[in-house]
Design brief:
5-stranded mixed sheet, alpha+beta
Length: 991
């Protein structure tokens, strides 16, 4: 730990950089009762809303919602012991009477609670202190506990000599003495017994904090002042001695031996060299905690006001807080006596030996309230520029010299030549002044066309002027402009710095910096590495650097780099940038051409919040590399552990990391790489997260390193390993399984094709057999019909004819004649019926109507006959089918439709059916539907034996025709049979 980073004790407390955090910045609750820093660099503190971890940017809260070991969110005290274990306790002053699991430890990401089983009886904890033996002292509301990892907990109470069991604070001194602060005084533990050092047992003396400084003094904070023990002597400091307040709430000793004091009304003070520094206010509530971190920052927790940080900066600011007349500074100048004068909005102030010595305003005789620039002439008089004219200050007396015109002007610069003439640069040109009068001259008249911002003497009566019209040379009373080539609008020059080698360095109003040498310009902007293009000041520190002040802060650049760029040796320059994080209360500079380098080499710049001073030779570098932590590893939004395998199919990988430098955490920079994926390191700048997508399977190690605000890198950084598992389709066993599966599939396909062929052959054989059986059945049916029907009729005709022949022609008996006529009538009827049945049998065997009138008429006649006899309503649409089909094809089509119609009548129980025959080019499509009860088509198709001859006959006839055949049916949706026939196929078969 470098002492260079400790707070500079020469500065007043107001000159430290103060930063604050409240709930608006992410703090869970505006109180920090106790503050510590763990070895990994994190800052920890307790609040009323949980235990908080802070990396300088983000807060992480541990409370009852996410940490089961916590029994309360009121964290009263935190402490880090010698081995890096974090101790925390709940309750404190807000839970004095609360008992329970109040004591916790945290290490390696795990919490542990301590209970009565461990020997700790749940008293409310008010503070911690380390023990030389590696243990812990715990101040509680019921006494003092001593904890040792070997022996556990031991409780000291008033039975052991404590002045009170309510212990506020405890501290083990460098000589091994243990000091205990109670509500009754200050006790010291010796040989297992307590001796009261402060307190008489009668009056209440609350010792809330105990600390030791480098000189061996023991300090105690009480409500009646500050107690100091040094050997056998005791001193009490009060407000009479410079203490800001008698009621003290917190103490801390820093690495330089300073004692820091916090009061119950928000005052913070420092004790050094036996005196108290002027205090600052942190609010109006108790300062509960004060802590110095590893980089020298001072942290304070103020009840209900939040968290504060004081840190030293490279700049020392003098503003209204330090006694400057106003925050708005416009010009800075050093006189021969070494005093620095600051021109402000309301007058001028003198800074002598780091303090504001004197100030002068319009009430003291200045010509105007506003001042812009200050200059000392050869006679020791100070000249002050203002809008209405100039004023002189000598021996405490002020004289005013208004401009000889009514118009107000901005005074930017002064210069005194060898003749004692005072040259004054204004927004209305260049003026000359001597012996209390403005000199009317040709130079003055010619200069009125220029707005003069800067004035630099080159010797031999030659001046360089920075104007709103660019760079202008004044020589022998003549003005010569040197515009930048190829520039439509001239550069507004705000400041000039001349080099010994003849180069002029120019600060422009919006176009960066210019080098003018040997009549040639070189421009530098943010594109070439500068920090800003709007520049007000330029100073040479005589150490090889140029310092520029602008709208965004102050930065320095090496002149060698600037010259190398001008000579084409390099293509960019490096600017070291300073802003409010380095001690400036505002990064915005003000004024023009009014910065100064004093005799000590320190640089002074005016800003909108005071004048700032920096010593270029002692710019402190933060040499402590920041610890690096990988805080979260997310896979597709879920948190994953270090070393845990990642399942295949994960897409988004996020790494969230932190660099633990609390000096300027916003300036910590990072580089990272994913070994196994990245070829090089990735420069992440200040970004605190890395993202990857769709990582292939493999082993990976993520590494991240960080640099602090001064570019000091922690090269070791942090790392974590993880494995992305391969998807199953990229594993060896999967490919082996695929091979076996493919082999099995090929085998089963082969067997399936053989089985399918065998099944088809069996179906064909079965169909042929059933067709033969069907043909035999048909023959039997026809024979039976011929025998039973036609034969019977013919026999009746024969018998009746015989009876008719037996009637004698001579027999005129009318009765016999009538009987004979009746027999002849019956013969006629029977003969007619025999003829009809003969036709029906013949039609069933071969529809003769098909050959005579064509397929369309045959189908329509067949459907009409069925419709008349069945009671089913048929919707019929049949296109004219001409003789482009062979007769066999027509018969097969007719039989298919006939079989479908018969199935509808016999099996469907339908009330409506449709027969649709259409033709498109060479395609004939037949669609037959019904609204009947249907059947399970899949089961029927899979069981050829149960499919019935009807469907089998239809399928076989479709195959013969070369037509596609489709059946759709279900028990609730009826049946649809679809046939598609290519006429060309039939024509080819006919040929």
């Amino acid at each position: 730990m470098s002492d260079l980073l400790a707070l500079d004790p020469v500065k007043s407390l107001s000159q430290y950089i103060r930063s604050g955090w409240t709930t608006e910045e992410g703090l869970p609750q505006n109180s920090a009762f106790s503050i510590v820093q763990t070895p990994d660099g994190y800052l920890w503190f307790g609040t009323l809303a949980g235990l908080v971890r802070f990396d300088g940017i983000e807060f992480k809260v541990f409370d009852q919602n996410n940490t089961k070991e916590l029994t309360s969110d009121m964290i009263a005290a935190v402490y880090v012991d010698a081995d890096g274990t974090l101790w925390a306790a709940t309750g404190g002053v807000y839970g004095a009477n609360r008992r329970g699991n109040n004591l916790f430890s945290y290490k390696d990401g795990k919490f542990r609670s301590y209970t009565e089983e461990d020997g700790f009886f749940g008293e409310s904890v008010l503070g911690f202190a380390g023990s030389r033996g590696g243990g812990l002292w715990i101040a509680t509301s019921s006494g003092l506990y001593q904890y040792s990892p070997e022996t556990g907990f031991h409780l000291y109470t008033t039975n052991d000599g404590l002045s009170s069991n309510r212990v506020w604070s405890v501290y083990e001194a460098s000589d091994g003495s243990v000091f205990v602060g109670t509500i009754a005084g200050l006790d010291r533990l010796r040989d297992g017994r307590f001796l009261t050092v402060i307190g008489d047992g009668k009056s209440q003396v609350n010792v809330k904090s105990i600390r030791e400084t480098a000189d061996g003094s023991i300090w105690g904070a009480t409500q009646k002042g500050l107690i100091r023990l040094n050997g056998d002597s005791t001193i009490t400091y009060t407000t009479a001695d410079g203490l800001p307040e008698n009621e003290i709430s917190a103490l801390a000793a820093d690495r330089d031996g300073n004692l820091w004091i916090g009061t119950v009304h928000g005052r913070l003070s420092r004790f050094r060299d036996d005196k108290f520094a002027e205090s600052i206010s942190l609010g109006d509530s108790d300062v509960w905690s004060i802590y110095e971190d590893r980089e020298g920052n001072l942290w304070t927790g103020v009840f209900s006001r939040g968290l504060y940080r004081l840190k030293d900066g490279n700049f020392t600011t003098f503003a209204q807080t330090e006694g400057l007349l106003a925050d708005g500074a416009w010009g800075v100048y050093e006189d021969r006596a070494g005093s620095v004068w600051v021109a402000t909005d309301v007058g001028i102030s003198e800074i002598r030996n780091g303090k504001i010595a004197k100030s002068y305003t319009q009430k003291d005789g200045l010509l105007d309230i506003f001042t812009s620039v200050i200059f000392e002439d050869a006679a020791g008089a100070l000249w002050i520029g203002s809008p209405r004219g100039i004023s002189s200050l000598k021996n405490g007396k002020i004289a005013n010299f208004p401009f000889p015109f009514k118009q107000e002007h901005y005074v930017s610069s002064f210069y005194e030549d060898a003749d004692g003439i005072l040259w004054i640069g204004t927004s209305n040109g260049l003026y000359q002044f001597k012996n209390g009068k403005f000199i009317a001259s040709a130079v003055t008249e010619k200069s009125k066309k220029f707005n003069v911002n800067a004035l630099s003497a080159a010797g031999d009566g030659v001046f360089w002027l920075g104007t709103t019209a660019g760079l202008v040379e004044l020589k022998n009373g003549e003005f010569t402009a040197y515009p930048v080539p190829n520039q439509q609008q001239p550069d507004k020059i705000n400041a000039i710095s001349a080099d010994a080698d003849g180069a002029l360095w120019l600060a422009t109003n919006s176009r960066g910096a210019l080098r003018f040498k040997n009549g040639k310009y070189t421009r530098y902007t943010v594109n070439e590495g500068l920090a800003d293009n709007l520049l007000f000041h330029v100073l040479d520190d005589e150490r090889g650097n140029l310092w520029f002040g602008g709208n965004r802060g102050i930065f320095k650049v090496g002149k060698q780099e600037l010259n190398d760029f001008a000579d084409g040796k390099i293509y960019a320059v490096n600017a070291n940038y300073f802003d409010s994080s380095d001690g400036m209360r505002s990064r915005e500079c003000s004024g023009i051409n009014s910065a100064v380098r004093d005799r000590r080499g320190n640089l002074w710049f005016p800003t909108v919040k005071g004048a700032v001073e920096i010593n270029p030779s002692s710019v402190e570098l933060n040499l402590i590399p920041p610890p690096v932590s990988i805080e979260k590893f997310l896979v597709d939004g879920g948190e994953a552990a270090d070393g845990a395998p990642v399942e295949p199919g994960s897409h988004n990988f996020e790494f969230h990391y932190a660099g633990l430098s609390l000096v300027a955490p916003q300036k910590v920079k990072f580089k990272y790489t994913l070994e196994g994926y990245d070829q090089n390191w990735v420069d992440a700048g200040t970004r605190r997260a890395a993202f990857y997508t769709n990582l292939p399977a493999g082993n990976y190690t993520f590494r991240v390193i960080a640099a602090n605000n001064d570019g000091v890198w922690n090269e070791q950084g942090a790392s974590m390993h993880f494995l992305v598992r391969a998807p199953f389709w990229r594993t060896l066993w999967f490919w082996l399984l695929c091979f076996l599966t493919l082999s099995a599939i090929v085998y089963f396909i082969y067997r399936a094709r053989i089985s399918l062929f065998e099944k088809r052959q069996a179906v064909q054989e079965m169909f042929a057999q059933r067709l033969i059986v069907s043909q035999e059945s048909e023959r039997k049916r026809i024979a039976g019909e011929l025998h039973d029907s036609l034969g019977q009729l013919l026999l009746v005709i024969k018998n009746r004819a015989f009876l008719g022949l037996n009637v004698s022609e001579k027999d005129d008996d009318r009765a016999k004649a009538a009987a004979s006529r009746a027999q002849l009538a019956e013969i006629l009827t029977s003969a007619t019926e025999a003829i009809f049945q003969t036709r029906q049998i013949a039609y069933a065997l071969r529809p003769l109507h098909l050959e005579r009138l064509g397929l369309t008429s045959a189908l329509e006649e067949m459907i009409d006959n069925v419709a008349d006899s069945s009671g089913i309503l048929f919707d019929v649409e049949i296109v004219e089918l001409y003789d482009f089909l062979s007769l066999d094809a027509q018969i097969n089509l007719f039989r298919i439709v006939q079989e479908c119609v018969n199935n509808i009548v016999k099996h469907s129980a339908a009330t409506r059916a449709g027969i649709f025959v259409t033709r498109d080019e060479n395609i004939i499509e037949i669609k037959i539907t019904d609204n009947g009860k249907g059947f399970d088509a899949s089961e029927t198709a899979n069981n050829a034996r149960q499919s019935g001859l009807g469907l089998t006959s239809i399928s076989e006839r479709a195959r013969i025709l070369g037509a596609s055949y489709q059946v759709e049916s279900s028990p609730i949706n009826g049946t649809m049979i679809f046939l598609s026939l290519n006429i060309r196929n039939d024509a080819d078969q006919t040929k």
